[in-house]
Amino acid sequence: MIINPKDNVEVREDGHKYAIRDIPQGADVIKYGMPIGHATKHIAAGEHVHVHNTATNLGEAVEYSYNPSFRELERETPPRIKVYRRPDGRIGIRNDIWVVPLVGCVNNLAESLARTCGGIALTHPYGCSQMGADHETTCEMLANLVRHPNAGGVLVVSLGCENNTLESFKARLGLSKDDSDGSKINLNLRFLKAQDPGDEFKRGLELIAELERDRVGERTDADAGELVVGLKCGGSDGFSGLTANPLVGRFSDWLCARGGSAILTEVPEMFGAETLLMNRCRTRQVFDKCVKMINGFKDYYASHGQVCYENPSPGNKAGGITTLEDKSLGCVQKGGSSPVEDVLLYGERVKAHGLSLMTGPGNDLVASTVLAAAGAHLILFTTGRGTPFGCVVPTIKIASNDKLAASKPGWIDWNAMSNPDVEDFAAKVLRVASGTELASNERNKAYGIAIFKDGVTL
Questions:
Q1: Full-model pTM
Q2: End-to-end alpha carbon distance in the chain
Q3: pLDDT tens-digit readout, 48-58
Q4: CB atoms within 10 A of CB 111
């Protein structure tokens, strides 16, 4: 246990909450200086505060008003990093070959081809038997990933009879059906329709050889202010909002002050803390987009007969998180304190420098994928419980507590409890960006994507 001499408060090492004074039944329970719920019975000083005596204050309908309150970041000179400069001017921090199937039917082929070159197969189960907006979402997400600057070359693999046809996908990218590569749009692309050649694997190998020949060969200097970083948490515990998430928030401010971009998603984990973000929106227009994002996700829950506030998972609760407000007030700290410059729809790409909010769920795989598709070069992933998951971009895992960092060194890149210094952490992130160090998911070859689905399957 730890003693805080300032307040004479004992902090338990299990991440759970204990009352520092009596809390009458019905009174708000305060953490992070804000209510995380109310006491369902009298809670005595020193008593465990958790799901057995605390409940959420959240409901479905909330009226929001714009009360701007944010501070401008003092601009700083960005350090230099080593990157791959793409023909269109963007930077990439990796130079991998990506194999992107347009439909799940060719996942095995994509995986086999990727293994031959040490590349990454972006497998998924969709691309056919979808309709309307659901189908559009899949196509747009795949197109954004194909455009990702971390890919030194991309082989797009079609089956030949799916709804997400190779011809329509090329048009989405800005190519004609006769274009055999991506030179017209400054991308190193090749296309394979598996049903056409007699030996699709052999043809795929030939196309990969062309991609390897044409990809950029050497890293060059660039400002770290060109970086786009995704902010994500998964398997939170009671320390996440005290150690790992605040560290990532300080880094987000550090990066934005140097001209970089940070993206915060997981809309359901903003519920209960959303007004903190709304009041940091730079303009009324951005605020209106933020309100629409929050209410849109609440409507999504309601359309499926679900309440919006029943979020903390069993692992969250075991780690000391009691209500959605408790989780959200810790989660939004990843966004630091800088102004919110933009709010993005699911599937959009980042446009503004500074902090953007991104429409997306809390699910680790789906949220990480939407960050990558929006243009994040890497993802900062905080966790109090641990996970081996990694996205298709470098996924730096930040532990919220010493126990996790010690027990899972193969999963964890940084221990925020032992080292909360933002300058040290920034140096680590820049080493990963420059390729002198690998993130844990890269060391473990753990790469994955998941696309949000909200529609019928034919």
A1: 0.91
A2: 56
A3: 888 888 878 77
A4: 15
